[in-house]
Input
Amino acid sequence: MSWSDDTLMAFVDGELDDRERARLTLALSADMALRRRVSAMKQQRRRVAAAYAPVLDEPIPDRLASLLQPPAVPVAVGPVVDLDEVRAAQARRQRPVSSWWQWGGMAAALVVGVLVGTQLDWRGRGAGPDLQDGRDGRLMAGGVVGQALSSQLASEPVPGAPVAVQLSFVDKGGSYCRTFSTKAVAGLACRQGGQWAVQALATVEAGPEGAVRQAATALPPAVLEAVDKRIAGDALDPGRERQAREQGWGR
Amino acid sequence: MPRSLCSLSMADFSPPQKVRDEIAALLPPLLPRLRRFGRTLARNREDADDLVQVAVERALRRTEQWQPGTRLDSWMFRIMQNAWIDETRARERRGQTFVAEEEGEHVGVSTTDAQIDAIAVRRAVAQLGDDQRAVVGLVLVEGLPYKDAAEVLGVPIGTLTSRLARAREALQALLAGAEGTRA
Output
């Protein structure tokens, strides 16, 4: 019998049912011309696949990889975030309430040397020059965190920065407060006496490849609770946030 | 009094969020294949990656349209195919032409026979029409079954197989011609 190109194509593409495939296989064993037709089709399929295979080994361009860096969820990042939504997202993730003030968990952050306070009695442990003393036993954000809190805008996330700032608001005492996160910790700091006093701090898991999480949804529950307790009104919109920065976060 | 975290009920575990998380987790390993499919549709790297970018952004915005448990690659290919059609029409309106990658420049002394063959094949594919390039990409390159490929393109299986057969014939002719000139 004669075999149509369509049938041979289906054979090569693995689309024939068992019975047809068995019949064709039998026919191939006795028909050299048929074997040639099938082998030409197989070879073409292999050639085309091979021609595009190297694409799989190319590095993924940053602009594509960055689309999927957590959170891939397009939540509002910045001062306009809805806190209820943030809390709900947080709860959905069912992350256990983070190790609040547990020094074990803090160790990683302290090695990085971003946050220090007199409570930790860190002096004499080789603290870096950018670390600063807190007063009255309070924990103050210094170094890169302090700089980020003073300069970065939540409305303008800086990809790749060591510190992310997610929310800015005015607390019930009238001071500016801001949330932040690094690879190891996330916290809330409020402006007190010209410094950023840390109100809440918790450990966080870094994003893939150690990226700092940019979105407010990634903040640990302990930090969100602290925000909730202190916030007066809504988070600052981008305009007010910029204005606050220009005024040095003083009120 | 603000709603405390403890008062959240199961109702707060909204499926859209879960689906979105699932998609976001499944997509990174798919990126190499999406880029490869893009290369069959779009003929050059920049356009192909633009296409992947648009498709990923659309996918993350329309997560509710994906049925968990179904093939995410097929869904992404469909989004890419539709995005490509949109792009083609937009460029036609603007009177813009498509530029195929000029691969000859990359051929050097160390280029292997396999690489030369790959370039010849990609050039031949680039000369096919949009419909034929899509079936070549889905079936011959991505290895999708006819049924899945037909679903991606939104055509009956008969249409898919006839496009595939014509694409194969055209490729065969183009490559035979290329070999003729090389010899």
Q: What stands out?
A: DSSP finds seven helices and no strands in chain B. The two ends of chain B are 83 Å apart (CA to CA).
